[in-house]
């Protein structure tokens, strides 16, 4: 279910390290990652909305950003509780409109996405920084844990094209899920010289699925550290943040 709504505000203060403000053009995310913490936020916590299927579109978000921008000083992050380039963005172009406003006011923004749709906006990204989330090299795992998100291959292709276009792009391997760590690190090292890794923090959401596929050792700290060590072998110690 897609519902268009009129939002009251667009810009929110955030404590995440890369920016002072966050903008979420959508509530909900059709990528539907099983491990996503955002499914327990806002309307999804209190209503029968289904994570991965139902999305609220803030149709007035661009106008709000234009209005609220004057009260802000600092960088922006898109987005904290949705992917700014999820399926809806193709039709509504909310993220594109927001970026147009921010760049026309010479404001810095950090865009984080799993989506190849970002390539549509390559003309707007020159002065921004982009982080592409690539959590695994295994398409079978991606299909189970990130059912609505672009394929592993599409993400690598997106990374390649962003790099080719000279965009400031980095890679986030987070959360660390089931993968061939050495292979993923090697594949990524063709495009970037450093990566950031993050452990999977909300085990309960994926516990049953991990049990079903015999992946439970991937929920341990030791496994995460093993992945870090494999990445360090490829990238070098100082080039893997976690
Ligand atoms: S893409 Fe991000 S926001 Fe969307 S479901 Fe996955 S983890 Fe959550």
Structure description:
With 242 residues, the chain is an alpha/beta fold. It has a single domain, classed as Alpha-Beta Barrel (TIM Barrel). The chain is 33% helix and 17% strand. The chain has nine helices and eleven strands. It has helices at 43-46, 61-68, 88-92, 94-104, 139-145, 152-164, 181-189, 207-213, 221-235; strands spanning 2-5, 11-13, 21-23, 26-27, 55-58, 76-78, 109-113, 129-133, 168-173, 195-197, 240-241. The strands form two sheets. The chain has an eight-stranded mixed sheet with strand order 2-3-6-7-8-9-10-11. Helix 2 packs parallel to helix 4 (94-104). The radius of gyration is 18 Å and the shape is globular. The mean pLDDT is 96. Bound molecules: iron/sulfur cluster. Iron/sulfur cluster binds next to loops.
Task: Provide the CATH top-level class.
Answer: Alpha Beta
Low-confidence stretches: none
Number of domains: 1
In helices, the fraction of residues equals: 25-40%
How large is the radius of gyration? Answer: 18 Å
The gross shape turns out to be globular
What is the second-level CATH architecture?
Answer: Alpha-Beta Barrel
Q: In which order are the strands of the major sheet placed?
A: 2-3-6-7-8-9-10-11
Biggest pleated sheet? 8 strands, mixed
Residue fraction in strands: 15-25%
**Which ions, cofactors or small ligands are bound in this entry?**
iron/sulfur cluster
Structural class: alpha/beta
Task: Give the terminus-to-terminus CA distance.
Answer: 37 Å
